[in-house]
Amino acid sequence: MKNVVLSAVAVFAGLAAAPVVAADVPVKAKPAVAAPAPSQWDVLFGVAFTSDYILRGVSQSAHKPAIQGYTELDFKPADWLTLYTGVWGSSLYSSFANAEFDITAGARFSWGNFGLDVGIVNYQYPDSTANGFGDYTEFYAKPSYKVADWLTIGAIVDGGNDFNNKYNIAGPWLGNGNAGYYSANAVITLPWHPIADVNLSINPEIGRQWYGSGPNTTLGVQSYTYWDVGFDINYKVFTLDLRYWGTNTSGSVASGGNAICFVGGAGNAGKDACEGKFVAMLKFDTALSAIK
Q: What is the pLDDT, as a whole number, of residue 254?
């Protein structure tokens, strides 16, 4: 019996001393590599081709086609805050200016479904003083609220005190330089997708452009109401915007002749920059973060 016990002990001792093979060793899982945090910086850019450049109901291109483009530098220090600066440009008609450049800087805030964009924009019109036009600056606030997945409503309040740089080609400037506008808008996303990745939306807006005593007295521009409604077809980075613009003012002498509606230059006789117009625009918009 003693020999049997000793033999059993020897067997277990031998097993304990047996070499360990790789298959017997548990594999230690490699630690997961965290995805790199997205950059706080981004660059947005785009280009557009439009059948008529209309700003607040008034044609800036004498009802002719225009090409436009922009670039914007964004910095996002927090999820709820984006700081930005950028430049947007458009061709104009030759009796207005060689081009328009809008230089902007501001901040966009986001809290849940509520958004707010506040900033400053300087409108630059190179070589425009010979035609009676000057650069000027406006401040703006653009609140928005996402009511539902299919509906976002918004507003714009914008104004400044140096309209047309208080420049009058015919003589001294009289009165203040106050001018601005306010508007209400909405984006209504339709539930129908004609093909994959194609989104449809309707975008109505109504606004009021106002002028202080200086612009009204010195330049003959009058406050007016404008409206527009657009139908957008979006496919990834491309958007086709089909929009109708209208106002309650006119350059017609019979209606009081609002100077903001006058179109100067050869070949533009009889044109009214404020008349109702259908406009088609094709846009391309993207960002560096989307193409890396």
A: 62
Distance CA 107, CA 141 (A): 10
Q: How confident is the model at residue 31 (pLDDT cuts 50, 70, 90)?
A: low
Question: Per residue in 44-101, pLDDT tens?
Answer: 999 999 999 999 999 999 999 999 999 999 999 999 999 999 999 999 998 899 899 9
Q: How many Cβ atoms from other residues are within 10 Å of residue 190's Cβ?
A: 13
216-245 burial, b at 16+ Cβ within 10 Å, e below that, comes to bebbebbbbbbbbebebebeeeebebebeb
CA distances from 108 to 69, 119, 122, 290 (A): 21, 9, 18, 20
Using the structure block, give the residue that is written with the tokens 């400044």: 160
d(C-alpha 242, C-alpha 264), whole Å: 27
Q: In this structure, what DSSP letter does residue 22 have? A: G
- Read off the pLDDT of residues 121-168 as tens digits, 9 standing for 90 and up: 999 999 999 999 999 999 999 999 999 999 999 999 999 999 999 999
Separation of first and last alpha carbons in the chain? 79
Cα distances from 282 to residues 12, 110, 158, 277, 288, in angstroms, run 83, 28, 26, 17, 20
Q: What is the DSSP letter of 126?
A: T
> How is domain 40-291 classified at the CATH fold level?
Porin (2.40.160)
pLDDT at position 36 is 75
Place of tokens 């350059």: 251
97 phi, psi to nearest 5 deg: -160, 165
Domain ranges of the chain: 40-291
